[in-house]
């Protein structure tokens, strides 16, 4: 048997579904990810014609999955939130791209192959931004500045979703630590359960610290022998 390096799976009807190439595997935050599988899932969206996913490290030490796609119809272009919601029902969270960038056509080399080096850096429109509403109050304003700096986005509205903007578990821990340094106490569990800026800001100051009592070493009364 000859190994082609292609990935696939048998369907209940006996047909084989193509899932991409085995050599497109990357490792991000400890998870091994098949880029071809994400591409195959995304390309099945009715509004997507072609799809390519790559791992980018535009910020040193921070690798993110970025999806590039061409629309199936010029008049119908899905937004980032729609594509993310579509993939959420098909893939685990660690395989969800942080950004979705629409292209008129995928860049090709002179040989007609995909030119991954020519794929552009995603801009703010590639992220799942919600209808912008400015932060309200000092806490939301300070928190929005922390999010923007950590997630490398231009601005953050009070209804924006931490994970839709490219956040993940490691960045969540970093955010909570930065908040503590800025005297904005919050529980990391709130960020996972209520991940919009307004929700996290509302929880600031309600986090309870768990005090661990110092262990006392018992004193042993021993009689000295003469």
Automatic annotation (TrEMBL):
Keywords: Ligase, Phosphopantetheine, Phosphoprotein
InterPro entries in the cross-refs: ACP-like_sf (IPR036736), AMP-bd_C (IPR025110), AMP-bd_C_sf (IPR045851), ANL_N_sf (IPR042099), PP-bd_ACP (IPR009081)
A single GO cellular-component term on record: cytoplasm
GO MF entries: ligase activity; phosphopantetheine binding
Residue ranges occupied by any Carrier domain in the UniProt entry: 134-208
Cofactor requirement: pantetheine 4'-phosphate
Gene Ontology biological process terms, A to Z: amino acid activation for nonribosomal peptide biosynthetic process; secondary metabolite biosynthetic process
SUPFAM superfamilies: Acetyl-CoA synthetase-like, ACP-like
PANTHER family per the UniProt record, alphabetical: FATTY ACID SYNTHASE, NONRIBOSOMAL PEPTIDE SYNTHETASE
Family: Belongs to the ATP-dependent AMP-binding enzyme family.
Protein name: Long-chain-fatty-acid--CoA ligase
Species for this entry: Pseudomonas batumici
